[in-house]
Amino acid sequence: MPGALALLRAGFARNLQYRLAHMFNNFGSAVFGFIYMALWQAASRGRALGPYAAHALITYIAVNQCLLWVTTFTTRGLGIGTWVRTGQIALEMHRPLPFFSRVMAEEAGHIAYNFCYRSLPLALLFAWLGDLSVQRLTIHGGIEFAAAALIAAYTGLCLNYLVGLSAFWLTEIRFAHTLMLAVSTVASGTMVPLALMPGWAARIATQLPFASLSNVPDNIFLGVATPDIWLVPCVWVAVLTAAAIAMTAAARRKLEIQGG
């Protein structure tokens, strides 16, 4: 545990060197957020769509823009692809801490930084402009939303970790990463809320792990979630963790066979 905390702090501190550059990222994220809000305002024409009131769709987009920095915009493959390509992976896999725990802890520091310097400033900006209706949250709802956001961040980490490990078999992971981002953008509800998709598409998407990244925390924030919304995310947390550990073991065996 002390080692994992040290790695988390190191991941956080490393990003502090680039705060000015990240301010420009925040500006771009805010601009895209306002563009999406304008599109949904035009599409809804002030009317409710599905379970969402007209202004709730604006809040949905605002919450999404804040969540993206802790669920999706993380290091590609958590850096594992680069280690495999350079050969550094042989050293990384023989460090004292378990490989899965160490990589996840270090990236958690990056996510903590993103929350403090990217998600939080965006949330304050949207709240100030009236696009993020924080007052709709009760204390209980706020706790539920925080829990859903943590699950979303962990799910995103696991998915990215699996993409990174695929470098043991694919060597180059850019296509796998791009494919994951494309599927995630649609199946998570980032661009279009799952409730507004055709029935068959919504039923499939809500059963996938990507729904945990956006659809679940957004619906909890807006107060339109049903009690059973927690089942699928919790199941996927267990499945993805088991898959990550199993794939790590397989990657270690492949490394030993190749390296002798």
Overall description:
With 260 residues, the protein is mainly alpha-helical. The protein has one domain. It has twelve helices and no strands. The chain has helices spanning 2-15, 19-44, 54-71, 80-86, 89-92, 99-128, 139-165, 167-170, 174-187, 199-205, 215-222, 231-259. Helix 2 (19-44) packs across helix 6, helix 7 (139-165) runs antiparallel to helix 11 (215-222) and helix 7 (139-165) packs parallel to helix 12 (231-259). The radius of gyration is 19 Å and the shape is globular. The model has no long low-confidence stretch (mean pLDDT 86).
Features:
260 residues, globular, mainly alpha, 12 helices
Parts with pLDDT < 50 across at least 5 consecutive residues: none
Relative strand content: under 5%
- Quick check: average pLDDT? 86
As a whole number of angstroms, the C-alpha radius of gyration is: 19 Å
Task: Please indicate the count of domains.
Answer: 1
Oligomer status: single chain
Number of continuous helical runs: 12
Q: Strands, helices and their partners?
A:
Blueprint: H1 2-15, H2 19-44, H3 54-71, H4 80-86, H5 89-92, H6 99-128, H7 139-165, H8 167-170, H9 174-187, H10 199-205, H11 215-222, H12 231-259
Helix pairs in contact: 1-6, 2-3, 2-6, 3-6, 3-11, 6-7, 7-11, 7-12
